[in-house]
Amino acid sequence: MLRLRMFAIAAGYEDADDCDGLRHDPVFKMAVGGARERRGAVLASRRCRRLENTPSPDPIARMMLAMIEVFCASYRRAPASIVLDIDDTLDRVHGQQQLSFFMRHYDERCFPADPHLRGPSGKLVTTILRTGKTPAARSHRAQAVIKRIRQRWPHVSNRVRGDSHYGRATRR
Fold first, then answer.
1. Which of 15-19, 47-51, 164-168 has the lowest mean pLDDT?
2. What's the rounded Cα separation, in Å, for the pair 157 and 141?
């Protein structure tokens, strides 16, 4: 199912519902890898919608933490300091995807992702996908990223760099 969905997106089929029409397509069967073994069989396309809508916040948070561990493991020893860059990056959506919003700044529907990058080297620490609205300063998750890095490297200096909307005062 994952291969079918990835190939469908690569071929320009943006919605999981499109997989229903592709379940008999011989090219997609061959790309997914089952054309010779399952002649006449159809691809399990009707479950693609469930596959796409299944992830909940808990597994996504675990994946974020695993990405931080991969980042830390890429160093032989702890660096002296880490700069987390939290500038927004546009992630365009197709159609009316859940939790996407129209953002006037980009003039389209999107999910702005917050990529956390180590400064000069550009190594990806983790990416947090959030809804397409301006974040409240207190809702930002850089604290969780820093906490996880400090668990691994307690003496590393951490700096956070971001757009001005991350520095505004919060209402209580």
1. 164-168
2. 18
